[in-house]
Amino acid sequence: MMEGPIAEVNLSKIDLDWNGAIAFLDRDGVLNFGSPNYINSPEELEIIPGAKEAIIALRDMGYRIAITTNQSAIMRGLWGEDTIHSIHAKLQNEIGLLDVLVTCPHRNRDRCRCRKPHPGMLNKASEIIRGKYHQTLDWWGEKPEPIHPLDLMVGDRNSDMGAGWAVGARLFKVDEKTGIAEVIDRIIRDDVGDDFNPVG
Ligand SMILES: [Zn+2]
Predict the structure, then answer these.
(1) Is 0.85 surpassed by the pTM of this model?
(2) Total structural domains in the chain?
(3) CB within 8 Å of 88: residues ≥ 6 apart
């Protein structure tokens, strides 16, 4: 079985001294419409209105962007890594280049450390982008300090909120039909984000 997550990196140059904020974004229900049967091909990918403009706004504010997406279809054997790359090529054709895209291919029973709510994909992206990441995890402790105070996570599920919580990020939960457009104004105003208790 595949050990870790699949990482696609578009940064032309890795700068471990970069100290800015990362916008961690779930994919399905945040940038594109999700499906109970997975997004299985580029043809099935449909961008949610306003997502492209939100990405542009995040870029203008200086965020680097990390997509973190659970795609257990891979370990279920429905399709492989090539499909993820072709879906992500279409995604970026439509909304612009994204710095890092991290995919967890695992099922619950694979007991990996990357499937959200585990923060493995966010930590992987943070390590790639700025050379630092959270090395401890305590679901019953205090929410950790973020690496950058404006780090944020946008998702449509509690598993997204849990993963963001575990890296101290500001949390923005959205409806799967409206996606990131629903919260971009709050993000622009440096809103503190939603309350979330991972063991509540
Ligand atoms: Zn995983």
Answers:
(1) yes
(2) 1
(3) 8, 67, 98, 101
